[in-house]
C-alpha cells in the first residue's frame, strides 16, 4: 500500500537493528486518516469471504482493526494480554505467547462470550515478525472451534519467519507493506 510505505519511509525509525518504530502514526500517536485508508484496503482484500468478526491483539492493532471491522460491518474483538493467571470472573480461552519486542511472555485471553463455533475470523495486527502473536490468536480461535479467514498486517518483516510459519498452517497472509531488510538503518521494501 503506497501511502503506508511512504509514511514508513518518512517517519519510521529503525532501532536495535531489527525493530521499526512507528510511534508517530500507529503505536503511540495514531494517524486516523491513514488508519481509515488501511481499514478500507484490508476490508477490500478480505471482502466476500463470510467474515463474522475481526480480532486484534491489544493495543497497537486496535486502530487499523477497528476501521477494518467498520468497513466489513462486523464486530471487533480485542484479545487481552494478561500478565498473570488472576481469577477472572468470566470464562475465557487462554494461551501463552512470547512477546518479540519485549522479550517477555503473556497470556493471550479471549472471553468465551465473544466467539462461537460459527465464527469466521479475520485477524488484524500492526506487525508480523516471528508470527508468535498471530499463532497465539489462531490457537484461541481453534480452541473455540471457529475458523480463521486470514491474517492482515500493516507491516511484515519478510526477513523473519512469521509468514512461512503461518502459510505452512494454511493461513492466508496479507501484508500492506513488506519490508525486505533494514540496511544501515534504512527500510528496504
Ligand atoms: P511476532 O509475534 O510476529 O513475532 O511479532 C508481532 C508483534 O510484535 C506485533 O504485535 C508487534 O506489536 C510486535 N512487533 C514485532 N516487530 C515489531 C517492530 O519491528 N516494531 C514494532 N513497533 N512492533 C513490532
Automatic annotation (TrEMBL):
MF annotations from Gene Ontology: xanthine phosphoribosyltransferase activity
Enzyme class of the recorded protein, top EC level: transferase
Catalytic activity: XMP + diphosphate = xanthine + 5-phospho-alpha-D-ribose 1-diphosphate
Domain of life according to the entry: Bacteria
Metabolic or biological pathway: Purine metabolism; XMP biosynthesis via salvage pathway; XMP from xanthine: step 1/1
Localization per record: Cytoplasm
InterPro entries in alphabetical order: PRTase-like (IPR029057), PRTase_dom (IPR000836), Pur/Pyrimidine_PRTase (IPR050118), Xanthine_PRibTrfase (IPR010079)
Residues binding xanthine: 20, 27, 157
Chief localization: cytoplasm
UniProt entry keywords in alphabetical sequence: Cytoplasm, Glycosyltransferase, Purine salvage, Transferase
Pfam family, one: Pribosyltran
EC nos: 2.4.2.22
Residue ranges of every copy of the Phosphoribosyltransferase domain listed in the record: 44-158
Positions that bind 5-phospho-alpha-D-ribose 1-diphosphate: 129-133
Binding partners and assembly: Homodimer.
Protein's job: Converts the preformed base xanthine, a product of nucleic acid breakdown, to xanthosine 5'-monophosphate (XMP), so it can be reused for RNA or DNA synthesis.
Entry's family note: Belongs to the purine/pyrimidine phosphoribosyltransferase family. Xpt subfamily.
HAMAP family reported in the protein's UniProt record: XPRTase
Name by which UniProt lists this protein: Xanthine phosphoribosyltransferase
Amino acid at each position: 500500500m503506497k501511502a503506508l510505505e511512504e509514511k514508513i519511509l518518512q517517519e519510521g525509525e529503525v532501532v536495535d537493528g531489527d525493530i521499526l518504530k512507528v510511534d508517530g502514526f500507529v503505536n503511540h500517536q495514531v494517524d486516523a486518516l491513514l488508519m481509515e485508508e488501511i481499514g478500507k484496503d484490508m476490508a477490500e482484500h478480505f471482502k466476500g469471504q463470510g467474515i463474522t468478526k475481526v480480532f486484534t491483539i491489544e493495543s497497537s492493532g486496535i486502530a487499523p482493526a477497528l476501521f477494518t471491522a467498520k468497513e466489513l460491518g462486523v464486530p471487533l474483538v480485542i484479545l487481552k494480554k494478561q500478565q498473570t493467571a488472576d481469577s477472572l470472573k468470566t470464562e475465557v480461552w487462554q494461551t501463552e505467547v512470547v512477546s518479540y519486542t519485549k522479550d517477555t511472555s503473556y497470556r493471550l485471553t479471549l472471553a468465551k462470550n465473544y466467539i462461537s463455533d460459527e465464527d469466521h475470523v479475520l485477524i488484524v495486527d500492526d506487525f508480523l515478525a516471528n508470527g508468535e502473536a498471530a499463532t497465539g490468536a489462531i490457537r484461541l480461535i481453534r480452541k473455540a472451534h471457529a475458523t480463521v479467514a486470514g491474517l492482515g498486517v500493516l507491516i511484515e518483516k519478510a526477513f523473519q519467519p512469521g509468514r512461512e510459519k503461518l502459510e505452512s498452517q494454511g493461513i492466508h497472509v496479507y501484508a500492506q507493506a513488506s519490508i525486505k531488510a533494514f540496511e544501515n538503518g534504512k527500510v528496504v521494501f
